[in-house]
Please model this.
Amino acid sequence: MIEEAVALANQTRQNAYNPYSKYAVGAAIGFQANGEGHLVGGCNVENISFGLCQCAERSAICTAVALFGEIEIDLVVVATKDGGTPCGACRQVISEFASTNCRIVCVDESGLQREFEFASIFPDSFHSDELG
Ligand code: THU
Model:
């Protein structure tokens, strides 16, 4: 599963639209939907109005929700030049759909992988009984 997800993240990274930052990011998320496992990829999509840049992780998550509806994410692979980790905004969005044991794998161009438990890199996340 991880190898397949890393391959998908590296593949979608090739499609990054990054004319402003020149920083290409590919992501792949492994998730459960309708009782089955799935893998979906995404890349960063930038805009000349810089605040509208979309991260690879959120691209993948939005695609997965559009295709499958309710999802539970077990794995997020992020592929970059230097093995960067998901930004804060992406961590918040991942937390909306993450399973309790969700893992994050960051891979660089040399193939070096670092793995984290999502809960350890996004502790004490926002929740409210008022909001559900
Ligand atoms: N980026 C991502 O795709 N994911 C992250 O978690 C961090 C940043 C993108 C946004 C922008 O297109 C470029 O990387 C530089 O910030």
Q: What stands out?
A: The chain has a mean pLDDT of 97. Strands lie at 26-33, 36-43, 72-79, 98-107, 113-117. The longest helix spans residues 56-68.
